[in-house]
Design goal:
Low-confidence stretches: 280-289, 353-376
Order of helices and strands: EEEEEHHEHEHEEEHEEEEHEE
Structural class: alpha+beta
Strand content: 15-25%
Distance between the termini: 62 Å
Helix content: 10-25%
Length: 383
């Protein structure tokens, strides 16, 4: 193989290959793109690329040691909330060293529910604040949750001091308090984010309940709204069962879908989080929607995305019309939901996973929905 001269700055002990080719590269250092990515310099063509260490084949022990040290030096910081730091710290480090990237910034809970909508030009900020306040009202009045007091997660705030989030004005004030002024401008192209955590973490078997809300605006128009609820499960010895967590997760899922009317919603576990490479909506949709679908233990897709009927023949899942869309439930249990199960859900929705990505299967499923649960009914958990 013909290669160019080794650059003056390069160390010949750091010459490596990619696992996808025989071309030779030399490690240049931190790519400064995403945490964990390395910059490589192609010795034959003279160009640079950014890759994850898992894509690199180290030729020398020196290069192998360099990569191990690089990952250790790039470990993410501990969670910035004292209430979940001990619960999540080791889990986030484990994920980083396994997958060589950080967990998604919003869904870092042991269990999580996410609802997302995009590109609804008719939606105003007041509409968003109103629907978000409805979520917190529902959380307060739910027999399963009963959460009335929330505390914002911010560096300059002493967690445990409750704020009111049951009205649109209170939601707006909370966003304004933790976001820079430019993000709150009526004509902003920016993302405003609010993170809150339940004040009393002893009441629920899930312990900490964290809500992360992101609103993206494009020249003042609401472009995307995403709401994620993270749950933790600190101790089974206190009597917590997987059935209790399923019940809480299903309740939160139903609240989000029925109050914020999302394009898609997902309930899942962190163990299947690697499957959250998302899937684009049906390109034949008559709306300009980019809302991705994340396959989960519970997966909801609104009818307005025009997905084909889910083909669940030969799979361990159930599908039924629910609310204003379709609900797919993977069975039998939440804690058995894995990456493989997530890929089966994606396939049922008309997508073919391909090495972490997804290609749209153009032919709609042959049959109509294979309905086992009744419409407007979430699956009941078994204890």
């Amino acid at each position: 193989m013909t290669i160019g001269p080794l650059p003056e700055w390069a160390d010949k002990r750091l010459i490596v290959r990619l696992n996808s080719s025989d071309e030779l590269y030399v490690i240049g250092g931190n790519a400064h793109t995403y945490r964990g990515r390395v910059e490589l310099y192609n010795l034959a063509e003279g160009y640079g690329i950014a890759v994850f260490p898992r894509e690199i084949v180290a030729i020398t022990d020196y290069a192998r040691g360099w990569l191990e040290g690089f990952l250790s030096g790039n470990e993410p910081a501990l969670p910035d909330s004292a209430a979940v730091a001990d619960l999540r710290g080791s889990r986030e480090l484990e994920y980083f060293h396994t997958h060589q990237r950080e967990l998604r910034s919003s869904n870092r809970g042991l269990y999580w529910v996410r609802a997302r909508s995009e590109n609804n030009s008719a939606t105003t900020m007041n509409d968003i604040y109103r629907s978000l306040s409805d979520v917190f009202v529902a959380f307060q009045h739910s027999d399963v949750l009963g959460i009335a007091e929330w505390s914002p997660i911010a560096r300059f705030y002493d967690e445990g001091q409750p704020i009111d989030l049951t009205g649109p004005a209170e939601i707006r004030d909370a966003f304004a308090w933790v976001n820079p002024g430019y993000a709150m401008s009526d004509n902003a192209t920016a993302a405003r984010t609010l993170r809150v955590i339940n004040c009393d973490q002893s009441r629920l078997p899930s312990g900490a309940v964290e809500v992360v809300i992101s609103i993206q605006t494009l020249r003042g128009i609401v472009y995307a709204v995403e709401m994620t609820v993270n749950l933790e499960e600190p101790a089974f010895e206190n009597g917590t069962s997987s059935g209790q967590i399923e019940s809480i997760l299903a309740t939160i899922f139903e609240i989000l879908v029925t109050t914020v009317d999302p394009d898609t919603a997902t309930a899942s576990t962190w163990t299947a989080v690697d499957a959250t490479a998302v899937y684009p909506p049906d390109p034949r949709s008559n709306r300009d929607l980019n809302t991705p679908v994340t396959p989960g233990w519970l997966t909801y897709v609104a009818d307005r995305l025009h997905f084909p009927a889910a083909d669940i023949s030969g799979t361990i899942m159930r599908s039924a019309p629910w609310y204003t869309g379709v609900l797919i439930t993977a069975t039998p249990r939440l804690n058995d939901f894995t990456l493989e199960a997530a890929e089966r859900v994606a396939t049922a929705l008309g997508y073919r996973p391909d090495e972490g990505d997804a290609d749209y299967v153009s032919e709609a499923a042959e049959s109509a929905l294979n309905s086992t649960p009744s419409a407007h009914s979430l699956p009941e958990s078994s204890n």
